[in-house]
Structure formats: structure tokens, C-alpha cells
Design a protein that fits this description.
Number of helices of chain A: 10
Oligomer: homodimer
Order of helices and strands of chain A: HHHHHHHHHH
Largest sheet of chain A: none
Helix content of chain A: over 70%
DNA sequence: GTTTAAATTAAACGATTGTTTAATTTTGCA
DNA sequence: TGCAAAATTAAACAATCGTTTAATTTAAAC
């Protein structure tokens, strides 16, 4: 991918996050990326193909960053691995603030199932990874709540809530800058999610 | 509101949930609701005003249903009130499956801040209600995790995740019908969310 | 039964949509 | 330098968008 294509992807993503796929026009993107309207069809084929290209590009970057995290270390306890996973996941996802929200919305739109395969694979990847993270704890008997589906729903959902609810939450938290908000997510929210899952897993009853 | 207006609202909501606001045309709505295109402008003024009307209509219904729940009973413990709240919230919200997702997406779209006041009030309402639910437990010293913002993020987020992730989750859970899925949400998911918040609140460390 | 207002319709409005065309410029290689 | 391929452009394409118009039908009030 050349520089111009990356420029298009970058600005298209920004606009898609802000206004949604259907709420963003090719001309909006062309203007923002400072390219001719025809260049988008020229490089990507169509608006939908551009969406797909953004999906695969961003998701591949995510995969690479996640692998680079080296979450699994034999010396770590199951709980330590879980903490590493949650914090690394949020940090990695938060490199592009709003991306997770965008992926979730557009990947979930029922009328646009065309992009879903890439997104389903992405969800599958995260789910399999989480199951692997939880495995050790279940096997050695230190984790008691064996339901990866509900656990992943809570991790992803809580994080997603902080992206979709930004206006309200920033108001409540009295946070004015985006940087401060992202810091809150990577620190306080990370800790909250980890603690929540931790007490859930360790509770014996 | 007369019968025809309700018909428009009903079908517009259905289509908005499926395809998003920008992904749904006035003609789509008119066709589905079996009315002339001009009737929408005639009754609601514009497409955006229709969106606003759906917001207020559905949210007002939600308020009424929530109040009818009579969550607060002096005889109940703080934990029992919390359980009632979570289960009643999900049951009420799930009367219109996908509505919470739709409200979250369209109410959060940054370029459409015009509808936000209604939605911000709705969030405020839910937040204040949850704070009231948690109050007793904090006051009598039985709850130890005093952070309503993060707690509400986990409750709402986990529930939202089950709406946005429907395709993937139904595949994982091997659920084929929508009814079965909604039952799962109102039973298993409700229990999961309650248990998660419960152990989080009761943990002393 | 007549009158007045409300409801409903088909048609047209200009603006915007995603995409394509055909012409021109730039680039990289022989 | 000359040439073929790639990149870039402005313009036009038909389709669709939300909205309005003006004419007609239906309903309600007197």
C-alpha cells in the first residue's frame, strides 16, 4: 500500500468513526484526504471495498500488536496472565480511539453482512485468545467461573461502553481532553475490568 | 399520536435498528409502514424529527415500565434491590430487542448531537437510578466498591455487547431463534451481570 | 347538505449519492 | 530522449436522497 492509499484509509477511518459509514460520503473522504474523488474507486474499487480494506488493515495491525505483547509466560500465574491480557488488549485497541466502536457498529449492521467474515474472524481470534488465557486457571483449579462467553461479553462490553458513552462519561468524570480520557481508559478502566473478572473467577460459591 | 403515526414509528425503528439512521431512507420507511412518503414530513416535519420522536416515545415508555417495577422495597436488602434493578432493567429494555443498541449508536454519533439531549437525560436517569440502588449498601457498609460510573459501565456494556454481537454469540451459543436468544439474555445474562456486580461489591480487599 | 379542515396522493424539486468516463499529467524504464 | 504504464483530473453519469407542491379525497362540524 502506497502513501496515498494509507492517507485515504486514515481519513476515511476518522470520518467513519465520527459519522458512520452511511453518514460519510466519498466526497467527504476525498476532501479530508486531499485527493480526487475518483482515486478512491481507482485504488479500492468501491466505497464498500474501502470499508473492507480498512477492516483488514486495522485488524491485521491489531493482530501484530497483540502477538508482540508476549502475554504468555510460564512463570506467570493464571491471574497474572489475565491481567496482562486485559491491559494489553485495551492498550492495543486504544491506539486508535473509537476504532473498536466503529468495528462493532459497522461489523454488526445486519444489512451489511458482506464485511462480516473479516470481523467474525476478529471476534473469533479474541475469543480464542481469551479462552487460552483462562485455560490455565481452570485446569489448576484456581478459577471457578467457567463461562468464557459471558466473561468476554463483560470485558468487551465494558470497554465498548466507554467508547460509545464518551460524551456522557466525560461529563460525569469532568474530563475535558481526549488524552485524559484515553489515559483514564488505559488506567482506571483497565484496573476495574481486571478486578471485576478477577473476583468473579476467584469466587468459590 | 394516532394509529398511523405509531405505525410509522414502529417500522422506522425496526429499519433504523437494522440499517442505521443514515442507512435507512424515507422511502424505505414509507414502504414498510405502507404510507405515502409525504406523510412522514407531514406528521413529523423531517427525518431527523422522526428520529427524535422515536427517541422520546420509546424512552418515555421505558420510564413508565421502569417506574412500574417498584424496585424499592424497604424490606429488601441492598443486594436484593440490586438484583431487582438489573433484572427489571434488562427485561424492560428487552421489550424492544435491539433498541438499546440503536439508542446507543445514534445517540452517540458525534455529528448528530441534536438528538443527544433526550438521550443524555435517559442516561442520566439510569445512572441516578443505579446510584440510588447502590446507596443503601454503601451506607450500611455491606458494599465495598464505591464507583457507580464503572459499575454502570459494566452493567450497560455487558448488556449492549449482547445486542451488538448477536451474530457471533448466537453462533457460539448455538441459538437459532430470536426468542431463544432473548430468553438467554433475560435469564443467563441477567444472572451473570448480577453475580458479577455482586461479587465486585462484596469483595472486601 | 354544505362548508371547512385534515388527510392523502402522485409528481416534481434541487441536491447529493457512488461510480465511470475520457482526457491529461506524471512516472519509471529502455 | 522516447515511450508505455500508472496516476490524476474535471466532468458527467444515472440513481437516490429528503422535502415540497398542488391537487384530490376523506372526515368532521355546523
Amino acid at each position: 500500500m502506497n502513501e496515498k492509499q494509507l492517507e485515504i484509509i486514515h481519513h476515511a477511518e476518522k470520518l467513519f468513526v465520527k459519522s458512520g459509514f452511511d453518514g460519510t460520503s466519498i466526497r467527504d473522504i476525498a476532501k479530508e484526504a486531499n485527493v480526487n474523488i475518483a482515486m478512491i474507486s481507482y485504488y479500492f474499487g468501491s466505497k464498500e471495498k474501502l470499508l473492507e480494506a480498512i477492516f483488514t488493515y486495522k485488524i491485521d495491525l491489531f493482530y501484530a500488536k497483540m502477538e508482540a505483547g508476549n502475554i504468555f509466560t510460564d512463570a506467570d500465574s493464571a491471574l497474572q496472565t489475565l491481567e496482562k491480557y486485559i491491559k494489553h488488549f485495551i492498550k492495543t485497541m486504544n491506539i486508535n480511539p473509537g476504532l473498536f466502536q466503529f468495528l462493532s457498529i459497522e461489523g454488526g449492521i445486519k444489512k451489511r453482512l458482506m464485511v462480516s467474515p473479516t470481523f467474525l474472524k476478529f471476534k473469533e481470534y479474541n475469543f480464542v485468545l481469551l479462552k487460552k488465557v483462562l485455560e490455565k486457571g481452570f485446569n489448576n483449579g484456581s478459577f471457578f467461573y467457567n463461562d468464557p462467553i459471558l466473561i468476554s461479553a463483560t470485558i468487551n462490553g465494558t470497554f465498548l461502553n466507554f467508547q460509545m458513552n464518551q460524551v456522557f462519561l466525560r461529563q460525569q468524570l469532568n474530563i475535558t481532553s481526549s488524552e485524559e480520557y484515553n489515559n483514564y481508559i488505559e488506567n482506571h478502566l483497565s484496573n476495574h475490568i481486571f478486578k471485576t473478572i478477577k473476583v468473579l473467577l476467584l469466587n468459590e460459591e
